[in-house]
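Good day; I would like, with your permission, to put a structural problem before you. The record follows directly beneath this note:
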Amino acid sequence: MFGVRVLTSNNKSEAEKPFWISYADLMTALMTLFLVVMVASLISVTQKITLETQDEKNRIKDIETICSTLKIKAQSLNKDIVVDCHDNRVNFGEAGRFNKDGFKLKNDGEQALTDIVPIILEAANSDIGDKWFKQVLIEGFTDTDGSYLYNLHLSLLRSEWVMCTLLDDKKNIGLSIDQKKSVNTLFLAGGVSFNDAKQSKDESRRVELKLQFYGLKEKMENNQLDQPVFNITRPEICQIS
């Protein structure tokens, strides 16, 4: 009488197909979007790393240029001065050595300072020097005789004496007032004891200048150039009456 239509399994399968096709398309689209975002992120990160790497290469090249120029000029003025561009250090050979328990350089040591300091200041005031030059650390070294605290104090006396010599108006270093102001902001006296002893004790009792440069992301403080980093407060070292 009344016909009953029975839905076969085949018809059921056909009814579900539109749903699963739409779901599959949605998942495909989401996966594609995810891949696009990941590729874009990877490209962005890669470009940033490449840019930072290139900037660091440029920084290293600039520093090498500063040191190489300094080395050439120093060698033409004084054969005792040795500029090491690998470690960015300046040493003075025998001219930069102290007597045992002493903290004053001889006349040839003062002459070496007279020759090298104006060149360093010139390099620091150049275009690339103004960009990367941070400071010059005066390091006084000792031999291994005596206690650690004694040698630490002695090394500090040696570096302080060099600093005082550069700033003392009574010393014939030949620096102008402006140059002494630059020394007072750029140079830093610091004792290091016998951390880097040489083969002989005579060679260990020395002074060296460590050239320090800014890192790629390091920023100079705005007030750094306006404040001196050293004040002469010990006249018994500087021999200031």
